[in-house]
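hey so i finally got around to running the thing on that chain from the lab meeting. sorry it took forever, my laptop kept dying and i had to restart like 3 times. anyway pasting the input first so we r on the same page abt which one it is
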Amino acid sequence: LKIKGNKMHETKSIKKNFLLNSILTVTTVLVPLITFPYISRVLLVEANGKVNFASSVINYFVMFSALGIPTYGIRACARVRDDKEQLSKTVHELLFINTVMTVITYTVFLCSLFLVPQFSQEKTLFLITSLNLLLNVVGMNWLYSALEEYKYITIRSLIVKLFSVICIFTLLHSPKDYKIYALILVVSTVGSNLFNFVYSRHFVSYKYYGHYEIKKHLKPIVTFFATTVAISIYANLDTVMLGFVAGDIEVGYYSAALKIRNTLATLAVSLGTVLLPRLSYWAQNKEIEKFKMALKKSFQFMFFMAIPITVYFVIYAKPTILLFSGKDYAGAILPTQWLVPTVFFAGLSNVTGTQAMVPFGNENKMLISILWGAVTNFSLNCVLIPKYGSAGAAFATMITEVVVLGIQCVYIRKLLSEIKIIKFVWKPAIASIISILCSLYVTTHVTLSLFGELAVSSLIFGLGYISILIFAKEELMMQVFSDLKKKLKE
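ok and heres what got predicted. didnt touch it at all, straight out
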């Protein structure tokens, strides 16, 4: 997007955005692979659990202070991104709402810090993590997503991630350093937020315009907020309930499994992150054929990525956890096996919900599906966590994602029928099954270290998967090769 006078003109291609986002995705995956084994072994299960418990609690307060702005802001800004004045006014209005809610929410947090025993026992830790709440208002990630400013997002993230990696390896030496670890996480987030606010002046004017329309945002923001609350029930409530019911050790197990799951999910939804603002733009401008074509590609990419990821890491959950977290985290193996399938189910619901429903203003239907998921998750957590701990929470999350996806598919069944997504499932599924059988045959007949088992199995699985898809002339794979040939000829 380039500013010309008072207009913004669309100059970025989806391929370029996807390339930049892929760089960001790779670093997002690599950083946990580099740091988490060290963090797990230095902090151990209990201290790691304390930090994750505090972070999960603060995430709830952040969620209330932000309302539904993180998602709604993308759509609202994407629709007016061609007009700098309207974009600026929209940003001002959303920042005002966010600021008011942050003041209210932080006041409630300070009261709870003294009233809730689990919080007051770790006041310093909670105060450190609460900085995320205070400075979340200037983060404005929704603005940069709406403007498709992936070059800036990528550069900023690389700088912040490099800083956090250096701090982790130089400042963490024992379980007693868990508060330092929390501070590192906070500084990384706060640093990104401050960068965002300063850089936003390239796109937004902060002069006073007057005639602000706060009310028009409230209804959709509340709807998105309700959706966020429902999602958080099975995104954060698992960790919070584990902390209250099962203790820090079970939180530590669950956090290790969740770290693996979230890293894998980042890979699976990388294209969707790029497409959302463009889908909103096309929906607003009634360019339905472009919308359907992009949505079909998103489904295709999701099957291509999520199916092999799910199959491989369910089978190789044990060496993955033991290698990256250590033997003390053996209790995280089963939770990982239950959580990894959510990469597939949640990835698809990201397409059916956020990408297919939100651009057309159907967030109410998405909310209904997520509310059903929230009820399912809370009910299952109440039954399973006391008896099965982290494994029960992971199983509840998996079932929840299936329920959400199923309901959303019913709502958009006509659209799904038009773009015929089923035909994109079979080749990745068959290729994954054949490849995992080949990997298992080798790794069960050869004695290998944990690293060796993962290295050999992933190599066989990856090469097998790609080879089978090439042989089967899978559409997405063929397109990648076609693009590479064009680039080489240039």
